[in-house]
Amino acid sequence: MAAKPPRPPRVGLVSLGCPKALVDSERILTRLRAEGYELVGSYEEADLVLVNTCGFLDSAREESFAAIREALAANGRVVVTGCLGAEAERLRARFPEVLAITGPHQYEQVMAAVHAALPPAHDPRFDLVPPQGLRLTPRHYAYLKIAEGCDRRCSFCIIPRLRGPQRSRPAAAVLAEAERLVAAGVRELLVVAQDTAAYGTDLRHATSRLGGRALRAHIVDFARALGGLGVWVRLHYVYPYPHVDELVALMAEGHLLPYLDVPFQHASPRILRLMRRPARAERTLERIRAWRRAVPELVLRSSFVVGFPGETEADFAELLDWLREAELDRVGCFVYEPVEGAAANALPDPVPPEVAEERRARLMALQEEISARRLARHVGRELAVLVDAVDGDVAVGRTYGDAPEIDGRVHLRGFDDLVPGDLVWAAVEDADAHDLYARYVEHQRPAEEAVAEASAASASSASASARGRSSGIM
Ligand code: SF4
Q1: Which end of the chain is more exposed for a tag (fewer CB within 10 A), N or C?
Q2: 161 or 447, which is more confident
């Protein structure tokens, strides 16, 4: 006889306030039910209680406080949402034991908070969707979106208008998703947002709880937590705020891949000002040097826009000089295109398309020399390679320095038995401006051991190993 399936997780809801709040409650209940949660009518039966609060009048606020107090006393596992959630910090100070707090109309955040505190039951006999969700990437890597929207106002971009201001996901919810992905076989997490380094500013870096652990919605804390999962963690779209230096320190400690994708966009202070981007290019060079002193293996990727309105030949020459100094590993370059609705459209002195295209070609030719020089340093070393695809006696994979789809690859030979998702050591024999060519050496041991070994190696400041190995997790 088949075993009885475990009972579904049970949620109770206390709904306060006006009809708009009631509609919010109905929507939340609908989604909970659709995901297999059972809705119950008493504190005793519930595994978790959701309190949808109202904060319109003082009396309504008092009623909400009383409801939270009662749910905490009767059940203990409480998530608060609704109008009072807009004052999350004050509410957290008053009720520190609440599991999560989200604001009004934040359906996704409420669901994420419930998932983190009480994961939905997964029954493969009935569910068409696996617990880690449906993904379009291969099984061994996954993108982890930590926020939507953007608070910046770069003059060439309309994303803030299309997607609205930044809305970060609670740290516990994203970490819970990352844990599910790792449990499902993911070996590399690619952290993305429009402005990854600004993660959590809209939440005022509020803490949320996952399994009794308090997590702050701040990119440095969050990256450290991800680093504990024993897989590759790669950061994309990192705007160069001062606290990026702390992320580089985490790379030096082995928590993150030593890879930073920083969209610098230009180097001429005049053009950067017109773009409404940070304009201290000289200071940026100093920071790059400091990052490389801290993490000599650091791989830097960036993207640039040429032919921006008003860009003179002198501005462009400044960008080329800057690139010669910065010696970035990977660069993407785009010709400026006016996007309907972008502030930059009003700028004078457009650059003729053929001039912009010629600048792009010159920039890429220079960068190809730089990239080839940077990659050549790996020849003769052993690098950790994550295998992406195998075709007969040739496999392609990536090192810590290659993000999928946008960077280079490692072409591997000399193996007997490889499958996508394997993590192996490979001896690099040759390099060009984009790719490495390597011979298989052996499979890596489990990622946890590699992390521990690499951290110990970097802590003792010994070289990565007697064989010149670089796991990329050090
Ligand atoms: S370019 Fe990036 S940082 Fe600037 S406004 Fe657009 S999304 Fe935000």
Answers
A1: N
A2: 161
The CA 429 to ligand 1 mean position distance, Å, reads 39
Could you tell which of 145, 148, 154 is best to mutate to test the pocket of ligand 1, judged by most ligand atoms within 8 Å of the CB? 154
Q: With respect to CATH, is domain 141-376 assigned 3.80.30.20?
A: yes
How many angstroms is it from 341 CA to the middle of ligand 1? 14
Output the six-digit token pair for 232.
């590759």
Label residue 281 by pLDDT band (50, 70, 90): low
To the nearest 10 degrees (0 to 180), the angle between helices 107-117 and 19-34 is 50
Q: Report CA(25)–ligand 1 centroid distance (Å).
A: 34
Q: Which of 156, 166, 195, 239 to mutate for ligand 1's pocket (most ligand atoms within 8 Å of CB)? A: 195
Instruction: For residue 231, report the distance from its CA to the centre of ligand 1, in Å.
Output: 28
Tokens of 214: 């308090």
Look at residue 123 in the predicted model and tell me its pLDDT: 64
Give the number of the atom of ligand 1 that is nearest the alpha carbon of residue 150. Answer: 8
- Determine which residue's CA is closest to atom 2 belonging to ligand 1: 194
- In this structure, what are the phi and psi dihedrals at residue 343, rounded to the nearest 5 degrees? -60, -30
Is 0.90 surpassed by the pTM of this model? no
Q: How many residues does the chain have?
A: 474
* Ligand 1 pocket residues where CB is under 6 Å: 150, 152-154, 157, 159-160, 194-195
Q: Whose CA is nearest to atom 4 of ligand 1?
A: 154
Residue 162: other Cβ atoms inside 10 A:
10
Domain spans of the chain, in order of start: 10-117, 141-376, 382-470
- For domain 10-117, give the CATH number: 3.40.50.12160
- The candidate with the shortest Cα–Cα distance to 250, out of 281, 215, 222, 283, is 222
Q: List, in order, residues 6 or more apart from 270 with CB less than 8 Å away.
A: 310, 315
CB 300 within 8 A of CB 339: no
User: Picking from 28-37, 131-140, 145-154, 235-244, which range would have the lowest pLDDT averaged per residue?
Assistant: 131-140
